[in-house]
Amino acid sequence: MRAVTIARLGGISIKVHPSWLLILALVSWTLADNVFPDTYAGWSTGAYWAIGVASALLLFVTVLLHELAHAVVAIRRGLPVPTITLFLFGGVSHLSRQPKTAREEFAIAIAGPLTSIAIALIAGVASLVAPNDKVEAILTYLATVNAILAIFNLLPGFPLDGGRVFRSIAWGKTKSFTRATMLAGRVGETCAYIMMAGGLILFVFGFAINGLWFLLIGWFLLSAARAEAGGVKLESALSKLRARDLMDVYVLSLPPETPLQVVVDEHVLGRGDRAVIIADKGSVRGILTLSDLLRVPKEQWPERTAGEFMTPSEQLSTVGPETPAIEVLALIGQKSLNQVPVISDGHLLGVISRKDLMDRVQHTETIRGAR
Questions:
Q1: Residue closest to 89 by CA, chosen among 216, 230, 231
Q2: Domains of the chain, with CATH numbers?
Q3: Beta-carbon neighbour count of residue 317 at 10 Å?
C-alpha cells in the first residue's frame, strides 16, 4: 500500500499511509465509546462520536506539527525534507541525506519532542479556561497524549527521536557516525525487546488491548532499528565506490534485429537473464526485459524482434561511470530494476546488476568483519 499525497507545505509533500485510517478509526472509537463516556457523563451518542473524531483528527495535526518541527530545523541547516508521511505509528520526516555533524543531528532530533511538550503545555493551560466541557475534553486529551508522545519519543529506542539524540551524543564521543549508529541500533533493539516483553506480560494479565499495542510498537521499533543500522552499514560499504567500480564490462548485447525466440532460448532460459541490452555498434538502443517478452504471444516469438518490443534508450534509467554506488543502489530499489546500463556519451561501458551489487556489499562486509 502506498501513501497518498494530501497537501504540500513549503515544498514538503505531506502524505498519508492507508494504515493511518486504521488508527484514526481506532482512536475515534476508543474515545467515543470508552474514554469520554467514563469522564464526561450526559452527552448524546452523537456528541461522544463528534468529539472523539475531532480529537483523533487534532491528534494527527499535532503529530504533523511534531514532524514539521524536525523539517523546519533540518531545512534551516541546509538539509532538504521532500516528504512527511503519517502512518500507523505516527509520522516520519524523510530527510534527503543523513546529518553531517552530531550537533546537526541533535538539533533536528530534539525539535520534535520539544514541540510536543509545547503543545501539551499550551493545550493543558487552555483546558483550564475552556468555555464548555466538550472543548475541555478535546484540550485535555491533546495535552495528555502529546505529553505521552514527547516522553515516548525521548526513549533511546532508535530510530525514535530519543534514539537519534542518543546517536548524536555517541557520534560526538566516538567521532564515527557508523559506530554511533551501530551502538544506537543495539540500544534500540534492547528497548524494543523490553517493550515486547512488557506487552506479553500485560496480555497474560488480562490487558489484551494494551499488551497488543506494546507488542506491535516493539516489533515496529525492532524492525526499524535493524533497517536503519543495515542502511548505514550499506552506505558505509558503498561510500567509496562508483558505478565504474561495480559494472560488468564484459556485457553481451544483442542487435535490434535479434528474434525474440533467440532471446528466450539463449538468454532467458539458457543464461537466466531477466533483461538484455539492445545495442547497435556500441550505442545503446534500449533494454528488453522479461516483462516485455511476456507481452508478446509465444507463437510470435520466432518472427518478432527485440527492437520491436524493447524499452527505448530515452526511457531507460541509466547512470554515468562516476555515479556514486549508493545512488545506483537507490535507483535500483526505487524503480525495481534488475540491471542498470552504465553510459558515457551514448556508448555502453558496462552493466550493473542488482545481484552483483548486493554480492559486492556482502563481500565488503565479510572482509570488514574478518579484521
A1: 216
A2: 4-238 (no CATH), 243-370 (3.10.580.10)
A3: 15
Helix (H, G, I), strand (E, B) or coil at 159: coil
Q: Residue 194 corresponds to which cell in the numbers above?
A: 523490553
Which amino acid is residue 133, in one-letter code? D
Q: What is the pTM of this model?
A: 0.68
| Torsion sign, CA atoms 291, 294, 295, 296 | positive
Residue with cell 538539509: 79
Tell me: pLDDT of 358 over 90.
no
Backbone angles phi and psi of 145, in degrees to 5: -70, -30
pLDDT in tens, 290-344: 778 888 888 888 888 988 888 887 777 788 888 887 778 777 776 777 778 888 8
Closest CA to 53 of 28, 25, 21: 28
Of the pLDDT bands very low, low, confident and very high (cuts 50, 70, 90), residue 365 is low
Q: State the number of CA atoms in the 13 A half-sphere of 162 facing the CB.
A: 13
> What value, to the nearest 5°, has the Cα angle with vertex 300 and ends 298 and 304?
125
DSSP annotation of 365 reads H
From CA 247, how far away is CA 310, in angstroms rounded?
21
Distances (CA, A) of 6 to 21, 62, 86, 125: 13, 16, 10, 31
